[in-house]
Design goal:
disordered C terminus, globular, mainly alpha
């Protein structure tokens, strides 16, 4: 019985691999240099949140067990945030409060991005991303177009390809140079 504790759970390994691919995609330098996400702790949270939202949206319409994968992926995301807070020196009493705030922020962003992504409303998405991801009142048009392109591409993926290759996001540099104020 004790040996079960040392076996790798194949599902856990798959979810960890999927989460790593999402996290790696959120760290592509072009997101920061070309699309205007600040290369700060907050900016990295915003980029990771955006990529998680896009990946979870891709899982939403897929057949079972996609809903379980989405739940496990979300759990991995929050476990990573918890571990990061502890690594940065947050004490045991502060972590739950900060995690509650991060969860609220994440779900708020998911809600703010879902509507414009559903309706393909680039202006509304640019405003939400400008405010949240870029920390600015200026619309983030290039980032919005990136997110819309990613959302569209991810809709074409099935569960097997998402689990094998992970979500495939467009290259941020392809959206660079688009005017931020013409939304």
């Amino acid at each position: 019985m004790i040996f079960r504790l040392f076996r790798k759970d194949p599902r856990r390994v798959l979810i960890a691999s999927l989460y790593k691919r999402v996290a790696d995609s959120s760290r592509v330098p072009g997101l920061y240099s070309a699309l205007g996400i600040p290369d700060t702790l907050e900016g990295r949270f915003e980029s990771l949140s955006l990529h998680m939202v896009l990946t979870l949206r891709a899982l939403r319409p897929l057949p079972a067990p996609a809903d379980d994968v989405a739940k496990d992926l979300t759990d991995a995301f929050f476990a990573d945030l918890d571990a990061s807070l502890r690594e940065m020196g947050a004490g045991d009493t502060a972590v739950p409060k900060r995690m509650k705030k991060l969860a609220s922020s994440f779900y708020g962003r998911a809600h703010a991005y879902d509507g414009p992504l559903d309706t393909r409303d680039v202006a509304a998405l640019a405003n939400a991303l400008g405010r949240n991801a870029c920390g600015s009142d200026a619309p983030a048009l290039s980032l919005a177009r990136y997110a819309l392109a990613a959302d569209e591409a991810l809709k074409q993926a099935d569960l097997a390809s998402l689990m094998e290759r992970g979500p495939v996001f467009p290259k941020p540099d392809a959206f660079a140079g688009e005017e931020r104020h013409d939304a």
